[in-house]
Amino acid sequence: MSQLNVETIDLAGQQYYAETVFPLAFCSDQQASKAVIADWIVEHRDQIEEQLALTGAILFRGFGLKDDRDFDDFIRAFDWPNFTYAESLSNAVRRNRTELVFTANEAPPTVSIFLHHEMAQTPVYPSKLLFFCEHAAESGGATPICRSDILLQQLREQLPEFVTDCENKGVRYSQTMPLVEDLASGQGRSWQSTLSAENRQQAESKLEHLNYDWQWQEDGSLSVTTPVLPAVRQLDDGRTVFFNQLIAAFRGWKDARNSGEKSICFGDGSAIDSAHMALAIELADQLTFDIPWQSGDVAVLDNFLVMHGRRPFQGKRAVLASLIS
Question: Which residue, of 4, 91, 174, 286, has the fewest CB within 10 Å?
Fold first, then answer.
């Protein structure tokens, strides 16, 4: 048996759905060694996975993590398969710290990153996300999270036709990727990095394999449109979720190359009503819980059940991330 003392704690504003608390929060003493923490994770991994699948988010506080190496060790204790940033189609500019750990997003502190399921705007996405607060912001900088199953329930009640269209038609996303990374944008990753391509021929080969449409722009940027992707997903336990990037795209895909309203449509090419999106955003905002970061915290999210984002902040903020296949 491990020597680690771990208790569940209450967080202001926690939400309760059926028999689950959102997010679940564990707290430990900070004197334990890495080996003891790793042993505790191994011993409780099955239970943690079961609880995560039910509630969607677990916060670990007071586990003594100080830096990216501690976070890397914490992740490895779970022995989950890594989903690498380099091989992903993520739009965000990130910097690897270790093999498993990278910065969450290099966008400026004033940029809001709105609610989304990680990489749901692509055909390939991770199942879980881990975030580590290396340094909490002076003010702001919370990570908002939202249960997409609860959001979908409310959308079915208030916008049943919209949900039916999401289920039956799916969605397509359009985006223009820059020639060189744009650190001023939350979607500023270059097409070379996004597609792991050294030239246009390699990029086109990758896009053809993914069944994307594309068009080269005069400035060297690359405009792409995805194949039809799901907007609603059924989980293994039968729950259905609002699994997409519609809110993030509609609200936040705005930069020198992109416009949120023009970045999304239904799978048949028909327009998505802005009023319907406005209500979806309003409902999601009402359901959002802001993770109140303290330095050393780790949050684990079920990417199929929970959307996340980033609040603007002031002062230094360092939140690192890792993805699980």
Answer: 286
Beta pairing partners, 128: 302, 324
Q: Percent of the chain scored above 70 by pLDDT?
A: 99
Q: Give the residue from 105, 117, 87, 121 showing the smallest Cα distance to 188.
A: 105
For residues 59 and 11, the answer to whether their CB atoms sit within 8 Å is yes
Q: Which amino acid is at 68?
A: D
pLDDT over threshold 90, residue 184: no
Instruction: Tell me the pLDDT tens digit for each residue of 21-48.
Output: 999 999 997 678 999 999 999 999 999 9
What's the CA gap between 36 and 282, in Å, rounded?
44
Cis, bond preceding 23 (omega within 30 deg of 0)? yes
Give residue 315's identity as a one-letter amino acid code.
G
Q: Any idea which residue has 């059926």 for tokens?
A: 18
Q: Which residue has the tokens 């739009």?
A: 91
Contacts of 180 (CB under 8 A, 6+ apart): 190
> What does the alpha-carbon distance between residue 164 and residue 283 come to, in Å, rounded to a whole number?
18
The 3-state DSSP class for residue 108 equals coil
The dihedral through the CA atoms of 272, 275, 278, 283 has a sign that is: negative
DSSP 229-298: B-SSEE-TTS-EE--SSHHHHHHH--SSS--GGGSEEETTSPPPPHHHHHHHHHHHHHH-EEE---TT-E
- E strand map for 205-247: 213-216, 222-225, 233-234, 240-241
Q: CA 40, CA 26: separation in Å to the nearest integer?
A: 12
The dihedrals phi and psi of 182, each to the nearest 5 degrees, come to: -115, 100
| C-alpha triplet 36, 40, 42: angle, nearest 5° | 115
Element (H, E) at 131: strand 128-135
DSSP 218: T
Q: Give 173-216 as a DSSP string.
A: EEEEE-SS--TTSTT---HHHHTT-SSHHHHHHHHHHHT-EEEE
Torsion-angle region of residue 307: left (phi > 0), alpha (psi -120 to 50) or beta? beta
CB 40 within 8 A of CB 74: no
